[in-house]
Amino acid sequence: DVPKVPDSRGDSDGPRRGSLCDRHCAAVNNAQGDLGELGCHLHRPRVPTAVSTPSCWQQHSEEVCESCVVKTTLTAENAVEANKLSNNYKFGFKKWKSHVTARPWEDRSEIVKELYSDLNVIRGSGGSTLTCGNVLYLLLFGWWLSLLYVLVAAVMFITVMGAPYGQLCWDLAGYFLWPFGKVIQKVEVRVPWDSPGVVLGCPMHTLMFPPLPRSPDPIRRVTSRSQRRARAAVWLCLGYPVLALAHGLVCVSAWLLIVLIPVAKLSARAAARVLLLPPERLLIRRLRMTEVPLEGEVILCCYRAANPYYYKYAVDGINIFAVNLLPLVLVTLVLGYVDSPNRLTGSALKFTLALLSIMPLSYYIGMAIASISAQSNFAVGAVVNATFGSITELTFYITALIKGSREGNRCYAEVVKSALTGTLVGCVLFVPGLCMVIGGIRHQEQRFNSRSAGVSSALLSLSVGGVFAPTLFSKVYGKLVCGECHNVTQNPLGRYLCHSCHFDLMDNNGTLYYSHVQPLVYTVSILLPAAYLIGLFFTLKTHTHIYDIHISDCHMPGHHHSAVVHWSRWRALLILLLSTLCMSACADLATEHISPILTNSTISQYFIGVTVLAMVPQLPEIVNGIQFALQNNLSLSIEIGNCIAVQVCMLQIPILVLFTIFYPTNFTLVFSDLHVYASMFSVVLMNYIFMDGKCDYFQGTVLVMVYFILLAVYFFTPSPSGC
């Protein structure tokens, strides 16, 4: 018991309340939320930073003290975001780090604001423009883009009619060679364009040669309207298409490199605005630190070509990596179904593309689930998470089993078992271990809610025991059959050396399997989902204090309380269905082209299953876990791995068993000895590490090292017999 806190008001029941609160604080570990912190609100409530104003906590201090339980206090900009944060702490719900609503602009850091700013702001002092990113732009794009402008300028000068555009291209050649610290402005005309023979003031000089000292508004005679139209037609036919195509290539290339997104914005704005304006309306000049900008709209002003923080960039709430990988899905589907005879590419490339396409689709499915759950009630969220939470893995497993059944190849069933085991071992060892290591670099010691982790660990131990019960039963009562045996001592009663031994369950017309093992498999497949439902009822209904979450309704001044969601419920549902459909197609392509890899590869099929097929679909979850760990919220990092592992045993495997009832396949719930030993050892080690409710990077290193040792064992293990 921790010491009692005396009541400053002198109440008779004050010491009793303080002692109760302290016992609650000692019972539950300090697990921090996304934007809040965990603390026991005693008679002097502690106000988290940027959570509430003094007037707000004074107003609610009595209510907090009356029910003084340890709560994880979270703050959110709106009710939808608060619901999403609360769902992260609910058992069985997908943990999602990204926002499902638009964050208020004033709440964002200056670094993030700069990512979304347009390249049309002139700074007082931009600093030196000689940076590594700017030099990289010069080497990748600047030199050939400038040379192309020079060539187009020569063509326009030859046409005579397009000479003004030739002068513009000559100026832009110097600009795009090194655009940093220079500005392109749109200046206003002084008289209407439709007046014949008018005089317009519009300065334009070359940046490749110093301008002559003259007035900022030189006088230039403008030709008639018909000549201007002819000049524009020549430009749109000969000059603009080539330059627009070049800028499009630069834009796409820079966008895919992510850190060079400012270059993509620069090229897009040049093609959409600069090249479509009359030359007389443009002013191109170099900025000086003490120079006062001229009047006119700033079209382009760039100081840096690269920004390493663009990994945080999002388009309509979608992370930039998921946006860039989306075309890969289209390429995979077109290449896979159009080139089915493998005339253009081989099976290895198609399998790799199909597997990589699963990553962005997993991201879209996860965000759709989080968006629907955050905007719906608890029942709808639970149904969506239970239905689509494991759709990525189940889609691949079912398509692989169907293909194996059609071909009569039992190797597909063994690959599915390896993938199931790899997901279990990876989510128990690698995911929390990696989060501990990365989070431990920033935080010396991290704490988590040991009670909530204990519930997941108990369910995981139960599920692992249930999944491998038929395997242990077959080892005890099955008949050991060996493919080849040699007498070592040349004595009939001596020792025999046997190879390719396995337990045969089909002896005596399969009496053991059909009469004992198969009923046991069906019994386990019924009990495991029932245990999962009991776990949901336990954590979400009867013992909610284990995951006690308090969403603060105190907001900083200026916060917007109205939710501007990225995806509405119907849009999220449509994206969820389309992503699931594309996921099924990619899984079909992956299983279609995995056969040559399994046959011709020298790597063990066990290793392929437990690494590539198991962990690639989990990459978005791993990224979420790392982000939570960096924010000192290791509870959610651990829960991500535990929830996936529990769903593998309690939902995915029973669904596969149910599927084999209606569609007979080679899948049986009997695993190899290596799968059994690796899974059980991983669960025991995880329970030991999570016992005290705190960890550091050393314990995470132990988990990661054990995971790599198991991978080495799988790598040197021979492929299953008959594959």
From TrEMBL:
Its main location: membrane. InterPro entries: CaH_exchang, NaCa_Exmemb, NCX_ion-bd_dom_sf, YccF. It is found in: Endomembrane system. The chain crosses the membrane at residues 135-158, 318-338, 344-366, 378-399, 419-441, 453-473, 520-540, 572-591, 603-623, 644-663, 669-690, 697-717. Gene3D superfamilies: NCX, central ion-binding region. GO terms for biological process: intracellular calcium ion homeostasis. Keywords: Antiport, Calcium, Calcium transport, Ion transport, Membrane, Phosphoprotein, Transmembrane, Transmembrane helix, Transport. Residues 349-467, 572-714 form the Sodium/calcium exchanger membrane region domain. It is a multi-pass membrane protein. GO terms for cellular component: endomembrane system; vacuolar membrane. It comes from the Eukaryota. Residues 132-182 form the Inner membrane component domain. The keyword Transport applies. One of its GO terms (molecular function) is calcium:proton antiporter activity. It holds the Pfam family YccF. This is VNX1 protein. The gene is Vnx1.
